[in-house]
Design brief:
Blueprint: H1 10-28, E1 32-41, E2 44-54, E3 60-63, H2 65-68, E4 73-77, E5 83-92, E6 97-102, E7 112-113, E8 124-129, E9 137-151, E10 157-164, E11 176-178, E12 183-191, E13 199-203, H3 204-217, E14 223-224, E15 227-233, H4 236-242, E16 248-255, H5 260-264, E17 271-275, E18 278-279, H6 283-289, E19 299-305, E20 308-314, E21 317-318
Parallel strand pairs: 7-12
Antiparallel strand pairs: 1-2, 1-4, 2-3, 3-6, 4-5, 5-6, 8-9, 8-11, 9-10, 10-13, 11-12, 12-13, 14-21, 15-16, 16-17, 17-18, 17-19, 19-20
Length: about 325
């Protein structure tokens, strides 16, 4: 007779899951803050609230643009009860991200930024924030889908968005979405009113690029071609057919009429694999390559349309800003 299988009890599995979530929260909880954004209007002082998280020891933090946009003053409440005035370093409404800074006389607890390109559907996702004024609320779930697109306040589509079923509510905006190693994988940004367990976060790799731009220029100046798309795998057969060494590309889901991409003849379902000789493996690659250096300049997109490889000429314009 063979050895009896060693079945782990449900209680043991639940205990392991609970311990994972609890230890993750303990590692990052001191870095998650509440944000109060005050606005002065003819009707008096108004305000809104949101969440954010410190990502450097010297007081820089990430949140959503919609939390802080138009604020005349910003205040940050840390978990130890410390209140600090915050300065807006810069914001990017087109990805709904903003960077703030608070003064720091000592090194502050901060989070580690992860790598959203390594995410898998089904892995555990943990959200921390301040929904409806309840500070440091923790919810957990799974990564439900990757590569979603959402419209930003400017009308531009935010690509490479993470969908999760970790519950979010008003006030969670700007808080971190974490993996089980306490690394930030996304910035919580949106819920769908009336839907259940459908919530979204801007991928942390997109946030890293935006942070670099805001640190360098105080704003994000990007080339705009007018499409939304998702990272999709590419078979070895297709890669060999195209003569490229990459395992993925960007599948176009929508082309805006009259945009540079539309005028160039790009169509939905086209697969973008390169621009100006540089490989385009992911949506992040495409966003990174469409920087200010390509505004108003002739560029060449390498695509696969069905079984036909094509080169399309496109001239990016400067992205609209609000």
């Amino acid at each position: 007779m063979g050895a009896r299988p060693d079945f782990t009890s449900d209680d043991e599995l639940l205990d392991a899951y609970s311990e994972t979530v609890a230890s993750t929260v303990e590692k990052v909880q001191d870095a998650v803050v509440a944000i109060a954004a005050h606005k002065t209007s003819p009707r008096g002082r108004q305000g809104g609230t949101g969440s954010g998280f410190l990502f450097t020891p010297d007081g820089y933090l990430l949140t959503n643009s919609h939390v802080v946009h138009g604020a005349t003053s910003l205040e940050v409440l840390r978990p130890d009860g410390t209140r600090s005035d915050a300065q807006l370093v810069g914001e990017d409404p087109e990805t709904d991200l903003a960077v703030l800074r608070i003064g720091a006389s000592r090194a502050l607890s901060h989070v580690e930024l992860g790598d959203s390109s390594k995410l898998r559907v089904g892995q555990v996702a943990i959200a921390i924030g301040n929904p409806l004024g309840f500070n440091h609320t923790v919810t957990s779930g799974i990564v439900s889908a990757l590569g979603r697109s959402l419209p930003s306040k400017t009308g531009r589509m935010i690509d490479n968005v993470i969908q999760t079923d970790a519950a979010l509510n008003p006030g969670n905006s700007g808080g971190p979405l974490l993996d089980t190693r306490a690394r930030v994988i996304g910035v919580n940004t949106a819920i769908i009113p009336g839907a259940q367990a459908i919530c979204f976060a801007v991928a942390v790799n997109s946030a890293k690029w935006v942070v670099q731009q805001l640190f360098a220029h105080g704003r994000v100046r990007r080339a705009f071609i007018g499409l939304s798309g998702a990272t999709v795998p590419m078979s070895r057969r297709v890669a060999r057919f195209l003569g490229v060494e990459q395992a993925s590309g960007v599948r176009v889901s929508q082309v805006q009429p009259g945009s540079p991409a539309g005028l160039a003849g790009l169509l939905a379902d086209d697969l973008i694999v390169g621009i100006d000789g540089a490989a385009v493996r992911t949506v992040d690659d495409l966003q990174r390559l469409l920087d200010e250096s390509r505004i108003g300049k002739h560029c060449v997109l390498r695509i696969l349309r069905g079984t036909q490889p094509l080169y399309l000429s496109v001239t990016p314009m400067e992205s609209r800003r609000i």
